[in-house]
Amino acid sequence: MQHLKCWVHPDIDAIGVCKSCGKGVCKECALTIRNETYCKTCVEASEVSVGKLKPVKPVVGRSGSITVASILFFIFGVVGFIGAITEIIYVFAKPFFAEVAIIGGIDFIVGLFTIYAGKLLWDNKKDGGIFGILMAVIALLIDLL
Ligand SMILES: [Zn+2]
Ligand SMILES: [Zn+2]
Description:
The protein is mostly helical. The chain has helices at 40-48, 64-93, 98-122, 127-144; strands spanning 16-17, 24-25, 30-33, 36-39. Helix 2 packs antiparallel against helix 3, helix 2 packs parallel to helix 4 (127-144) and helix 3 (98-122) runs antiparallel to helix 4 (127-144).
């Protein structure tokens, strides 16, 4: 038996069938709205013909692990940020420790970026994960110095 193909991409296997028009849709073309699969064409059409499929915008669920990771990045970022501020204050008190100022500055930036990575993940942007891990590695390396 032949696999059902996407109606937009006839050479790609369908992962589901549009609830509205009954055509096969591939991973790229499928939109999930309230646990039902639709094709992009039907969703776009529904944006014109009022409220057939509500909500019109596909609601992308955030998985639990991503939520946890983004919260961890937030905490990690805030901790790094606070650490950086104490380091900077310390340097103001004892201006001889120039290297602490440099570390403080890097921690400050890394902290900010880690919070940003958390925000990216929170918005379900997978790049945030890689970005956050990269920032965590940099922060660890700095602390090891
Ligand atoms: Zn459709
Ligand atoms: Zn397709």
